[in-house]
Amino acid sequence: MSTINPDATALTAAANSLRRSKPHYGERVIRGLLLLAAVVSVLTTFGIVISLLIPSIEFFTEIPIGDFLFGTTWTPLFMNGEFGVLPLVSGTLVITGIAIIVAIPLGLGSAIYLSEYASLRVRKVLKPTLEVLAGIPTVVFGFFALEFLTQLVLVKIFPGIEVFNALSAGIIMGIMIIPTIASLSEDAMAAVPSGLRDGAYALGSTKRQTAMKVVIPAALSGIVAAFVLGISRAIGETMIVTIAAGLQPQLTLNPLQGMQTMTSYIAAAGSGDLATGSIEYKSIFAVGLLLFILTFIMNVFSIRLVRRFRQVYQ
Amino acid sequence: MSTRQSLEQQPQSFSPQSLSGKGTPLRDRIFMWALFLALAVGVFTLAVLLIYVTVKGWPRLDLRLITNMPSVRDPENAGAQSALTGSIWVITFTALIALPMGIMAALYLEEFARPSSKFQRFIEVNIQNLAAVPSIVYGILGLAVFARALALGQSVITASMTLALLVLPVIIISTREALRAVPRSIRDGSLALGATEWQTAYRQTLPAAVPGIATGTILALSRAIGEAAPLLLLGAVSFITFNPDGVLSNYTTMPIQIFNWTKESREEFQILAAATIVLLLVILLAMNFIAIWIRNRTQKRW
């Protein structure tokens, strides 16, 4: 016993000497500053929510929320303007729908090709090309949709098409979100363990059967997350619709006509010099709040799916 | 033992191709070509877009584009100088705000925060969500908070602060990835020699991650240069024929100038818009190449 005790004290003494002799206050200050920077992101979210909520609440004291959500006429600039948001929502949904019809098959097809078929050399060329496509500013896509797609291509196919129309905006928006869907789906497919593929091949599957019946089901939650994020991007996209789809709020499903979306209303109304207290000014925030809630739900859903997907294969 | 040897001698005989027999079924070949076609559509559209704007903008792709100011009366000689300088002003201050803040936040999350604590997860989900919030919503934030509540008005600094918040999540995410790629052993070595946590982060981890951070940051800033939607709400659409002379100056940027010209009906303005698009795309492509060059040149194998 007596021989152990001195050893133990020596050990604690050694441990103590390894510990800091004095606390590093500078260290704590720096840590605090870094934490502050990380908290800025939380503050941004709060800032967005509060700056959307306060004018929106004022807006809804003047316009009943039911009239806003279910009204079918959007004429904010008229004398007794009506604030029924459905034309903006339908415009958003029609254009987003067209974009999805374009982007999901093309994006998923690209992802399967890159992940399962492409040789290393082909990948090295095509992946950066998709990255370049993702880096094209949306104002450029808008210009392309209006000047090229509508005026040089679509007028020849649909002679009755309006200069500003939902179709051109939807198609180009679909092209715009191909890289989002392709790269996220490809990540999901690349994360599928190769053992699953080898198993399928060993049972005599062809490459197509392996891709369609093994890899895609295994990567499904990641692929769905990619779709949801792509749709969320399409709903929130502003410049393409502002330039190519026109500024006419219309409750119609005809893609050859012009439409206004939630985002293009915000852009059009917000770029004028509106008085801070006016109902038109507040309507920007009410529409913005609706847009934020829609995309927020989709983003959180997509983030959850990706997280669950990662847990399965890690 | 003997089976293992034969495996090692002829590994190719077990690759799926050689097991699948001769020739691929027709349905499979069609499937593969359909996939390739899907990818080709995106690539083809990109090619058409690049060729179209270059051909359309060609007549105006000369020095007048950067020496002259925008003009309503004289589209033949109008340029985009105020938009170019405006973009440079805005992006410079965006970088000055977003860069330190993004790197600091990433350092905290990666090096200092307790991993997988509830607070850390909350911030992480929050940042992921912010990265997917529509850019026009940031415009609304900038309009309500910076332009009106802080009374900074339609100025360069309002635009820079708004764009900084917009790209912050992207910078944080890419910086964290760069920090994560630095091996644990470098931190352990530094700590074992008696360096504090901050000394380790600042003198060892951060310098080792600089190439990755630079690449991610340049890509994030190139996104900010092309961004137009939030600036529509922040006064950039007004007709500006002067270069900014300070952070509180009025401004316009290249994407906004392109947007304004697109709205004009006369063909000369469309040509001018196309020429400005080419200038913008050249700047963006140059930034992308620099980013890729840094990544390839300094790629370290630990």
Description:
- The complex is a heterodimer of chains A (314) and B (302).
- Chain A has 314 residues and is an all-alpha fold.
- Chain A has helices at 4-18, 25-62, 65-70, 86-117, 120-135, 138-157, 166-190, 194-202, 207-218, 220-236, 239-244, 262-271, 279-312.
- In chain A, helix 4 crosses helix 7.
- Chain B is mainly alpha-helical.
- Chain B is built from 13 helices and no strands.
- In chain B, 45% of the residues are buried.
In terms of topology, how is this protein built?
The complex is a heterodimer of chains A (314) and B (302).
Chain A: H1 4-18, H2 25-62, H3 65-70, H4 86-117, H5 120-135, H6 138-157, H7 166-190, H8 194-202, H9 207-218, H10 220-236, H11 239-244, H12 262-271, H13 279-312
Helix pairs in contact in A: 2-13, 4-7, 4-10, 5-7, 6-7, 7-10, 8-9, 10-13, 12-13
Chain B: H1 2-9, H2 16-19, H3 26-57, H4 64-67, H5 81-112, H6 118-132, H7 135-149, H8 156-180, H9 184-192, H10 197-226, H11 229-232, H12 254-263, H13 267-297
Helix pairs in contact in B: 3-13, 5-8, 5-10, 5-12, 6-8, 7-8, 8-10, 9-10, 10-13, 12-13
Structure characteristics:
A: 314 residues, mainly alpha, MetI-like fold, 2 domains, 13 helices, globular, B: 302 residues, 73% helix, disordered N terminus
The biggest chain-chain interface is:
A-B, 90 and 91 residues
Q: What amount of the residues of chain B lies in strands?
A: under 5%
Average predicted local confidence, pLDDT of chain A = 88
**How many beta strands in the DSSP annotation of chain B?**
0
What's the shape of chain A? globular
The helix/strand order of chain B is HHHHHHHHHHHHH
Which CATH class of the largest domain in chain B? Mainly Alpha
The CATH topology of the largest domain in chain A: MetI-like fold
Give helix % range of chain B: over 70%
Separation, N- and C-terminal Cα atoms of chain B: 36 Å
And the CATH topology of the largest domain in chain B?
MetI-like fold
Poorly predicted runs of chain B = 1-13
Class per helix and strand makeup of chain A = mainly alpha
Sketch the major β-sheet of chain B.
Answer: none
How does CATH name the architecture of the largest domain in chain A?
Answer: Orthogonal Bundle
Beta-strand content bin of chain A: under 5%
CATH architecture of the largest domain in chain B: Orthogonal Bundle
